[in-house]
Structures are given as C-alpha cells and as structure tokens.
Amino acid sequence: MRNLSIRQNILIAILGIVFSILLVTGIIFYTTFSKRTDTLVESQSREINKQIVLNYESYINSVIETANYIQYASLNLDVNSSAFELQNIYLINSEIKRDVVSIFLFNSQGIQILGDPVSNSRKDGISHESWFTSALAENSIFHFSADNSRSISADSEEQVISVSRAVSYTDTGENKNGVILIELNFRTITDLAEKTNLGPGGHILILDDEDSLIYSSGTYDQIRSRESIQIAVQNYFGGFPAEIDAKVMHMNITPLSQTRWRIVTVNDVDEVAQAKRRMLLTLVLIFIVSGLVASAAAVAISRRISNPMKLLRESMANIEKGDFYSKVSISGQREVVQLASSFNSMIDTIRSLMEKVVEEQRDKRKTELRALQNQINPHFLYNTLDSIVWLAENNRTDDVITTVVALAKFFRISISRGETFIPVSDELSHIRNYLTIQQIRYQEKFSYVFEIDEGIYEYMVMKLILQPLVENAIYHGIGDEQEKITIRGYKENNLLVFEVENTGYGVTEERISEMYKILNGTHEVNSVGIRNVYQRLKLYYGVEGNVIITSKLDEMTNIKLVIPIEIPAELPADLKDNA
C-alpha cells in the first residue's frame, strides 16, 4: 500500500473496515444462533426421550404388578384345593388386559399348572425355552425376552414378548417352585411409540442387553433400522447428534428399569439443520451483496485515479517482454503526466544502449568464430610439413608427391573462397585428403571406411568441423595392432549426426570425464583440435550442438558430433550469407 495514493489507501482501509465488520458480525450471529439451536434440539430430544422412557416404565410396572398379584394369589391359594378359583384369576387377567395374550404357571419341570391351554406341539419343550431356563437361573428378577417368538397358547398364533420369573406356589399345603409366564403383544408398545412425534424420519428402537432388536417404530426398512442399531451399539448411553439415511438426527439412549432393555429415541432434526444452512446462506448473500455495493463505490471513486497508473503499468509490462518501441501517452494528474514523460525518456535511453550492446556482441562473436576457425589450419600445416620433411629424409619421393598433392587439395577446400560454411560433400573430401596424408605418414598403420548417407551431401556445415575428430582418433588410437577408423554421417530428425569411431585401447570413464572438462574449459590442456570443434559448435549452434564421447575398453572409442540442420536466427548476417 506504500505505492498507492493517499485516497486509495483511505479507500482500501474503509473497505477493509466494512468487510471486517460484516464478517465478524455474521460469524458471531451465526455461531450464537447455531449454538442456541443445538441446545434447544438437545434439550427437546432429551425431554422427549425422558417422557417415552417414563411411559414404557409405567407400562412395565403395570405388567410387573399383574405378575406380582398372580404370584401372591398362587402362594396363598392351594392349586389343588382352589384350582378353579386360581384358574379364573389367570384367565380373567389375560382377558381384561388387552396387551396380555396369555398367562401360565409351570412347575420346575416345565409342566403346566394353571393358565391358558398350551399348544400340544409346545408342551414337551417348555423346559428348554429360553424364558424358562433364564427364570430358573436368575430367580430374583423378571426376564423380558427379545426373541419375539410365537405364543405357546393353543388359542393364539401371535408373536409375543415373554415376561417370566421364578415364583413359589402352594400345592396340597406344600410350597413349591415354578415359573410364571406372561405373554405380551405389541399393541401397547406400538401405541406408546405412535403417540410421540419424533419428526418425519424419527423412530424408536428397543434393544436388549445383547443389542438385539426387540421393536422398531416408524416406516423405516431393515437397512435404515440397521444403521440406527449400529450407532446405538457403539454408544451405549447418552444423547448425541447422528447422521442416518443422509439426514441429521439426534439420538438418545436410556436403559429401561426392571428390564435389560434400552430405549433408543431418534429425533429427526434435519429441518433444523436445513434452517441453519439457510441462515448461513443468507448471511453469505448479505456479505456478498454488501461487498459488491462497497466495491462498486470503491471502483467509481478510484477509477479516475488508477486508470493513468494502469496505462503506465502496462507499458512497463511491455518493456519487460522486450518491447522498447511502445511509448505511453497519459493525460490527467500533473504528477502522473510527468512520470510518463520521464518513463518515455528512459525507454529511449535503454533502447539506444541495447542496440549498441547488440552490435558490439555481434562483432565479438564474428571475431571469435573466425579466430577459432583459423586455429585449425596452422595446427595441421605444422604437423603435415613435419611429415613431408620426414618422408624426404627417407627418400620416399612418391609419398612426398602424394602428400603435397593431397595437402594442396586439403588447403583448397580449407580456404573455400573465404566461406565459413561448405557442403557436407566438400567436408568429406577434405577428410579423405587428410587421411591420405596421415596414412603415408603412419606407414599404413590404420585403415578407414566411410559410411555416409548420400542424402546429407548438400547440407551446409562449418568447414573443418570433422578433421580435428579424425586427427584425435589417429593420434590417440594407433598402437601396435592395425587400427580401423570409421566415419559415419546420417540425418536424425532435424539433426545431422557425424560419428568418428576408432578401434584400439579405448578410454576409461575417468578419462571421458576429463575430456568433457577439457571441452567445457574447466581443465587446462595444450590440445587444440577437439576443444576447438566444441567451442565453435557451441558458439554457432548453441545448446542444440553437442559432442558426445563413448568408449569400451580394448574395443573402441566413438565421438559423436550433433549439428542442427537449420541455421540459428541470431547468427550474424555475414555468416548467414556464407551458410
């Protein structure tokens, strides 16, 4: 903000304050509303659960009172002498209570003493029923079964809940142990559940101590009920929010006294959650609209100030991209107009300096390229004249003549009418003349072969680009055995590739690494040839030109020269003409 005007700084500060107030107010309001809503939902859900539990406990207590009354009558009246009276008590209680299906009294062996008639198919198995064995195993409590099995009464096919307990009764003046069984239908449990409004997706679950489902209200299918049961199993007691069937619910779990059951109430509070989301959306819309209004006011005020600066900034961006010919024309505040005038003057100065530097660099590059080119001829001439002297001293006249003729042809191509670039065919003729001279000098200690793709003969390359590589192969490859030099040339994609490969001792990886250092100028040596080629290659072709060295010990050494076919656009004009 230090680079902006005072008006813009004040404007930005005002907008910041407005947005901050709106944001903080919205966050505080939504947080307060959300917390208050969550508290009310939790409180209401807890109260509903409490009332449902009280209703079911009242119902369970009434069942227990009936069982206690029957047990008291069975203990005070003799089942032998007062059988008719006791039977009436059992039958009347099962008839007058609409939730009671049947009432039975069995002795400790599972034989019926009193109550409704037992189905013939079930008589022999009473002693093995779970409600019977549980009552005898724990005789101090009532056992509420969870298997929802079919009634054992001969007069009913209903699915019932079995309530059993071990009791004492009098038979012929003697106290005996037995089990009382009260079978309940689901009518009262259903009525109690339907009287409670838990929302569109709310429902009630009753689970036993083994987390088996005894009852499920509502229209939920088994998959949805299973989802609620899984959550209830993971949370044995208490109230908490839960997501069931992609809806927001609030679940409360409370144990039911006198039983081993748990009442699970699931309140549908998805509408409340949607209300919270709508509130949040409303606050966001208010924030956005207020921000748009404030932004529109800010834009209207700052536009006349910022537009001239924008034009100046765009001109600076063009300068960064290299456009030094576009000037900025600004009208408006005096300070900005003066700044634009100074900026235009700076552009003129920079452009003049850059043109001067470019011209100097072009001249320097041209001089460097020609200096490197001229290093090759004296270097080779010295070695060849030395060979001619040696041949003359040994009276090898014919070889002297052949060498001088080859040298003349060599320098004819080397001069090339002053041109820097020659066809590939001329460069190869140059190499053949050179190899002729060297074969005479080394007395046929090596042979050579050309493997050249005829399609590349007409391409232009820098002259004397291959001869130093061939020279290197001869000087560093000749040993006691006959050496073979192979010169290859071919086109690969948009590149010309030349390979000079010689058989012989080969070089180690350490030596190759040292040779690369020589090429890059990080290792000082007296060698001229291959380093000269590399420098000229990089100076002319840039990163696309390259020298690659590979070797296998006691097999071969290969130097590959990679040359782009197209002439770079930045090449000096006089060199392009030669190419």
CATH topology of the domain at 367-578: Heat Shock Protein 90
Do you know the CATH architecture of the domain at 367-578? 2-Layer Sandwich
Which structural class should the secondary elements be placed in?
alpha+beta
Strand content bin: 15-25%
CATH level 1 name of the domain at 367-578: Alpha Beta
Distance between the termini: 56 Å
Which residues sit in consecutive blocks of at least 5 with pLDDT less than 50? Answer: 568-579
| DSSP, total strands | 17
Instruction: Profile the largest sheet.
Output: 5 strands, antiparallel
Specify the CATH homologous superfamily of the domain at 367-578: Histidine kinase-like ATPase, C-terminal domain
Q: Give the helix tally.
A: 14
The spatial strand order of the largest sheet comes to 2-1-5-4-3
Radius of gyration: 53 Å
Shape: elongated
The residue fraction in helices comes out at 40-55%
pLDDT averaged residue by residue: 77
